[in-house]
Specification:
Layout: H1 3-11, H2 24-53, H3 66-94, H4 96-113, H5 120-134, H6 137-148, H7 151-162, H8 164-183, H9 185-188, H10 193-206, H11 218-224, H12 238-242, H13 245-276, H14 284-310, H15 315-330, H16 343-374, H17 377-409, H18 413-433
């Protein structure tokens, strides 16, 4: 696409009635969806293999305990946090096309490296390397989302590609038992390698920035750039971002609520196994239901603001209202502590966890989008990294807590009470620090 067409389209703020937009932006969203699916397949393999790895070496495991499992998960999140110190700025510097390819290659090689481990120490090292690689997925995806979608569509597009997290868990739940039973648990860590390599090739061939994409029409480019133009300055220094209230309105809720999703991801298979004595194969249906529900929550949660806008709310108030709805729907998960270990209790647990996971994904879709609501595109990658960094640090602390609590008590009660309460607290913090999601003008 030549520069004159890009400039003329970018100058358009009103899209003429009858303009044919095209759907190139949704093909980009589909590629983000696939990348996120692969990302979460890599993460879920460990949770599914936890009972196997907790067996002694003589019985085919590596002698892992609840405490050491929590430590392994904690070190993944710690190195995930370390990676986030560089991931967002790396993507801001080199761009989404090259940056995403490098990130995908790094985490995929680390994931396949798990197939070589034979001790808890080796597993911790492999998991730490995976954390560094996977830290770049959401900064890169969120920056791509900001480049390719107008503000009013960003939470929907994020909800769609974030749905890949749920699909990744579902696919891992279907694939890992078969691979483990047929070829052993080491082989189960290799299943995503083919998908990763294929995605890297497709991204290299098909991805370009909107103004440079050969298949993008002038009408769709104008639609993408319909929001008021922003000043595009240099990347904002982190120290400057840390002094802005909007950064913390995004980062503190990430610190509080991201660990809950990680808790579901890494401990739900163990919860169902411990509470209801389910086998690896028996985990399939409960996990499938929970994550299918969360996929619905991811998409519908991203769609909620548009519904509220049609009711007459401003985009900012619509976003906050959607977040409040999702935060409220998480609360009933604390009732899981009162269920018995019978068939009714099992399916009641599935229902409560499905509602909580769906509400979390709806919350996450809108919380992620507040970064691009409050900051210019030049700062979105860095702000997302700050938030993801605090989320990972929260995940590190929560993983250590979970491992310790389960080691000494064997009870999930405290953990589910925390999971039920932190979203409404996060909502209050967001509103207090950034009333109405006011733009951070000082970084522009």
């Amino acid at each position: 696409m030549d520069g004159s067409k890009a400039q003329s389209a970018q100058a358009e703020c009103e899209i003429p009635i009858g303009t044919k937009l095209g759907n190139v932006r949704w093909t980009i969203c589909a590629m983000l969806f696939v990348a996120t699916t692969i990302n979460y397949m890599d993460r879920q393999v460990l949770a599914l293999l936890k009972p196997t790895l907790m067996q002694t070496v003589a019985h085919g495991g590596i002698g892992m305990t609840e405490e050491s499992y929590g430590t392994v998960v904690a070190f993944f999140t710690l190195f995930y946090a370390i990676g986030l110190l560089f991931a967002g700025r790396f993507v801001d510097k080199v761009g989404t096309r090259i940056g995403y390819m490098v990130i995908m290659a790094l985490w995929s090689l680390s994931a396949m490296g798990h197939s070589l481990v034979n001790s808890v120490l080796q597993l911790g090292i492999a998991r730490s390397c995976l954390g560094i690689g996977e830290s770049g997925n959401f900064p890169a995806a969120n920056k791509t989302n900001a480049e390719w979608f107008p503000q009013k569509e960003r939470s929907l597009s994020f909800g769609i590609f974030n749905c890949g997290a749920n699909v990744g868990v579902i696919l891992a739940t279907l694939i890992v038992p078969f691979v483990k039973n047929r070829f052993g648990w080491h082989a189960a860590f290799l299943v995503t390698g083919f998908f990763s390599a294929s995605w890297i090739v497709l991204w290299f061939i098909r991805y370009h920035k909107p103004a440079e994409h050969p298949a993008l029409s002038a009408g769709e480019l104008a639609y993408i750039n319909q929001d008021p133009p922003e000043k595009r300055g240099p990347t904002t220094p982190w120290l400057k971002l840390l002094g802005i209230r909007q950064t913390w309105a995004y980062a503190i809720p990430k610190f509080l609520t991201d660990p809950i999703w990680w808790f579901y991801l890494y401990w739900l298979p163990g919860y169902f196994t411990d509470k209801f004595s389910l086998s690896l194969v028996g985990l399939g249906m409960p996990i499938l239901i929970v994550y299918n529900a969360s996929a619905v929550g991811s998409i519908y949660g991203g769609y909620l603001p548009a519904s509220f806008i049609r009711m007459g709310l401003t985009p900012q108030r619509a976003r906050l209202t959607a977040m409040l709805v999702c935060a409220s729907l998480v609360v009933p998960v604390f009732l899981i502590n009162y269920l018995h270990a019978d068939s009714f209790g099992k399916w009641a647990a599935v229902g409560l966890l499905s509602l909580a996971a769906a509400a979390h994904q709806g919350w996450s879709a809108n919380l992620f989008t507040t970064a691009s609501d409050m900051f210019p595109r030049s700062a979105v990658g860095s702000v997302t990294s700050v938030g993801s960094l605090t989320g990972a640090l929260g995940g590190f602390l929560f993983a250590k807590l979970a491992g310790h609590v389960l080691q000494i008590s064997g009870s999930y009660s405290i953990l589910f009470i925390i999971a039920a309460s932190v979203y409404l607290l996060s909502m209050l913090i967001t509103v207090a620090l950034a009333p109405g999601l006011k733009k951070a003008e000082s970084v522009i």
